[in-house]
From TrEMBL:
It comes from the Eukaryota. Residues 266-310 form the EGF-like domain. Keywords: EGF-like domain, Signal. This is EGF-like domain-containing protein. It comes from Ambrosia artemisiifolia (Common ragweed).
C-alpha cells in the first residue's frame, strides 16, 4: 500500500519536473537577448535595444535605462512621445501583455489660489507616430476630478485627420455631496474615447476658477487611464496634494499593440506574416487594423518566435 503510494508520488513528481522543464525552455525573447528590464519582462515581438535585432521591428524596440534604480523601460522616443510637466518626453512602460502595453499616464493639473489665480498648470498628451499602437477605447476612460472642472480631449492638431473631441464636466458645491467610488459628475466624471486613437491632448478647464469650492478643492485634474485601475476616493482625493503623482504611479494608460495595419489575409504568404507553427492569426477590430498571433488551443509558447507554439 505504502509502496504503491510512493511509486505514484514519484511518478507524479517526475511528471511535474518534465512540465516545469518544458516551460523553462520556452523562448520569451530572441535567443541571446535579455528578457527583463528591471522586473519587467519584455516578450517578443518586443525586445530591448534600438536596432539590436531583439525585436520584430523598430516599433517594438524597448529602451531600458539602467541609470534609474530599478531600471525603467521606455517606448522608442522617435515613435512615441508624451506631453507632461513642460514639453514632450519619453513614454514609460509599466507592463507588456499579449494584447496591451500599459504606459505611465500624465495627469493634466490646474491649481488655483483663493482668488482664482492659476498657480500651477500642466497638460497631458500622447503622440504615437506609427500604426501599430492605438489608445484602447475599451480599457481607458477620460477622467476629470474636481468640483468646478471639465476635461477637454482632442487630437494633437495637424497630426491626425480624425475630428473628435471628448470631455465631461464635474461640479459640486458642498464637500458632503461628493460620493466615494463613482464618477458620476460630482467630484469626478468619466467618459469614453473613440476607437483607433493615436494622439490626444487633454486639458482641465474651470467654470468659476475654484473660488466657490477652494476651501475643500484647490485643483482640477484630467487624465486618460485604465478604468479598472482607478477608484475615486471622494473628498480625500480632492484634498490630496499628491493626487497627480499617486495616480500617475497607479493608473496606467492602456495601448493596444498589433502587427501591421491590414488583415491576416493581407499579410499571409508575405514576409510581414509572423505567426509561427501551431498558431492562428487574429484580425484586430478595436483600432486601425493589424493582426495578432495566438497559440492554437492546447498549445503554448510565443506564437511570434520560431519554431512556434508547442503542445503539452
Ligand atoms: C530539461 O530536461 C532535459 C531532459 O530531462 C535535460 O536534458 C535538460 O537539461 C533540461 N533543461 C533545462 C533547461 O532544465
Ligand atoms: C528556442 O529557439 C531556438 C532557436 O530559434 C530553437 O532552436 C528552440 O527550439 C526554441 N525552443 C522552444 C521551446 O521554442
Ligand atoms: C537615462 O536617463 C537619464 C536620466 O533621466 C538620462 O540622462 C539619460 O539620457 C537616459 N539614457 C538614455 C539612453 O536614454
Ligand atoms: C522587483 O520586484 C520586487 C517585488 O515586487 C521588489 O521588491 C524589487 O524591488 C523589484 N526589483 C526591481 C529591480 O525592480
Ligand atoms: C492669486 O493669483 C493672482 C494671479 O496670479 C494674483 O494676482 C493674486 O494676488 C493671488 N491672490 C492671492 C490671495 O494670493
Ligand atoms: C473638423 O471639424 C471642423 C469644425 O467642425 C471643420 O471645420 C473641419 O473641416 C473638420 N476637419 C476634418 C478633417 O474633418
Ligand atoms: C497562401 O499560400 C497557400 C499555399 O501556397 C495558398 O493555399 C493560400 O491560398 C495562400 N493564401 C493567401 C491569402 O494568399
Amino acid at each position: 500500500m505504502h509502496l504503491l503510494f510512493i511509486f505514484l508520488y514519484l511518478s507524479h513528481l517526475s511528471f511535474m519536473t518534465a512540465v516545469t522543464n518544458n516551460t523553462a525552455v520556452t523562448n520569451i525573447t530572441v535567443p541571446g537577448c535579455p528578457t527583463k528590464c528591471g522586473n519587467l519582462t519584455i516578450p517578443y515581438p518586443f525586445g530591448i535595444g534600438r536596432n539590436s535585432g531583439c525585436s520584430l521591428g523598430p516599433w517594438f524596440d524597448i529602451t531600458c535605462n539602467t541609470s534609474f534604480n530599478p531600471p525603467k523601460a521606455f517606448l522608442p522616443a522617435d515613435l512615441f512621445s508624451m506631453t507632461g510637466i513642460s514639453n514632450f518626453h519619453q513614454v514609460e512602460v509599466m507592463d507588456i501583455s499579449d494584447e496591451h502595453v500599459r504606459v505611465k499616464s500624465t495627469i493634466a493639473t490646474k491649481c488655483y489660489n483663493q482668488t482664482g489665480g492659476v498657480i500651477q498648470t500642466t497638460t497631458s498628451g500622447l503622440v504615437v507616430e506609427n500604426s501599430y499602437f492605438t489608445i484602447s477605447s475599451e480599457r481607458n476612460k477620460v477622467f476629470a476630478i474636481g468640483c468646478d472642472d471639465y476635461a477637454f480631449v482632442s487630437p494633437v492638431f495637424g497630426i491626425e485627420g480624425k475630428n473628435f473631441s471628448s470631455g465631461c464636466v464635474s461640479v459640486c458645491s458642498n464637500v458632503k455631496d461628493v460620493p466615494v467610488g463613482t464618477c458620476s459628475g460630482m467630484g469626478c466624471c468619466a467618459t469614453s474615447l473613440p476607437k483607433g486613437l493615436t494622439t490626444y491632448v487633454a486639458g482641465v478647464y474651470t467654470l468659476k476658477s475654484h473660488t466657490e469650492v477652494w476651501s475643500f478643492d484647490k485643483c482640477g485634474y484630467t487624465f486618460l487611464g485604465e478604468q479598472s485601475a482607478f477608484t475615486f476616493q471622494g473628498a480625500s482625493d480632492l484634498d490630496d496634494p499628491d493626487f497627480a503623482t499617486r495616480t500617475a504611479e497607479t493608473v496606467p494608460m492602456v495601448l493596444n499593440w498589433v502587427i501591421g495595419s491590414g488583415t491576416c489575409n493581407d499579410y499571409r504568404n508575405t514576409s510581414d506574416y509572423y505567426c509561427q507553427e501551431n498558431s492562428v492569426c487574429v484580425d484586430f477590430e478595436g483600432g486601425n487594423g493589424g493582426y495578432r498571433c495566438s497559440c492554437k488551443d492546447g498549445y503554448q509558447g510565443n506564437p511570434y518566435l520560431f519554431p512556434g507554439c508547442y503542445g503539452q
